[in-house]
Write a structure and sequence with these properties.
single chain, six-stranded mixed β-sheet, globular, Rossmann fold
């Protein structure tokens, strides 16, 4: 703590006066007034980095992560300041950010990082993934005075959403399953991954799943067989985080699952795991997810 206090003191001593103009933007915790177009920004969430990258903004400080290919360039030159769950406050202080962005996994650290600089929470709620992604994009565009760019990106996103909805029209039922090695969980509408039902328009194969369970409802091969979905959307958590565990394909490999309509009709869709699990709410991540859904449903 003594070294952190020293770093903070040095940062304050050499601080450049704040820009005269501030901007008020919506965040996950209400409106916040922050410096407009912050010259130095620390972003402690991969989805937020993704959205800022789409607007042409690269972070000066970021978590130490290399699991998302399409944001690798954006964070290549950033100072690494710890992990998503455990930011390194001394490293942050050394960067001297004008603004710190937390979200999702790093949101619980907002008070801690606020010791270094003003911080905002730009968490995206999985149950409202599309609406929150749009809201965060618009807010970041406002922050950096990139309104025209933000509107163009939103228009493209709306086109993608319309294409997925059209591809899914009349295509039957679906079930969203997350695998974690040999374990499986199912998610229904209104849940963490409930957005998949919203954007495709497919009917839930099971209506009784607990929307409030963050880890889903634990299920078995028998459960999937009884649900017999027309489409099975699968998220492989192990693949998302680079864990050395059994793959989703291996976990689902059973006679019971192979008897479902989804399997026999070749309608088992493996979602872009890192995009869904690690950078949820990121603009490009969402576009890539929608591309994968459209390709599957239209094919």
């Amino acid at each position: 703590m003594r070294s952190l206090a020293l770093a903070l003191a040095l940062t304050a001593a050499h601080a450049v006066p704040a820009a005269a103009q501030d901007v008020t933007i919506p965040t996950a915790q209400g409106e916040a007034t922050v410096p407009a177009a912050p010259e130095t920004i620390a972003v402690l969430d991969l989805g937020a980095i993704d959205t800022l990258q789409a607007l042409g903004v690269a972070p000066d400080a970021a978590p130490d992560s290399n699991l998302i290919d399409h944001i690798a360039e954006a964070i290549a030159g950033a100072v690494k300041v710890g992990t998503l769950q455990e930011p390194n406050l001394e490293a942050l202080a050394g960067v001297g950010p004008d603004l710190i962005v937390v979200a999702n996994r790093s949101a619980t650290q907002k008070d801690a990082v606020s010791q270094v600089a003003p911080a905002i929470d730009m968490t995206v709620d999985g149950a409202n993934l599309v609406a929150d992604t749009k809201a965060r994009l618009a807010a970041f565009a406002q922050l950096y005075g990139k309104g025209a760019d933000g509107e163009a990106l939103l228009a493209l996103l709306d086109e993608k959403l319309a294409a997925v909805a059209a591809a899914g029209e009349g295509k039957g039922t679906m079930l969203v399953v997350l695998t974690n090695g040999p374990k499986m969980s199912a998610y229904g509408p209104g849940s963490r991954f409930g957005w998949a039902y919203d954007v495709t328009g497919l009917t839930p194969a099971v209506e009784t799943l607990d929307a409030t369970a963050n880890h889903g409802d634990a299920i078995s091969h028998e459960f999937i067989a009884q649900a017999n979905p027309d489409w099975l959307f699968v998220l492989d958590r192990g693949a998302a985080i680079g864990a050395d565990v059994q793959s989703a394909e291996a976990t689902l490999d059973s006679a019971l699952v192979k008897g479902t309509t989804a399997w026999t009709e070749d309608q088992v869709v493996y979602l872009p795991a890192s995009n869904v699990y690690l950078s949820a709410g990121g603009y490009t991540s969402l576009l890539e997810i929608l591309d994968s859904l459209e390709a599957a449903l239209a094919g």
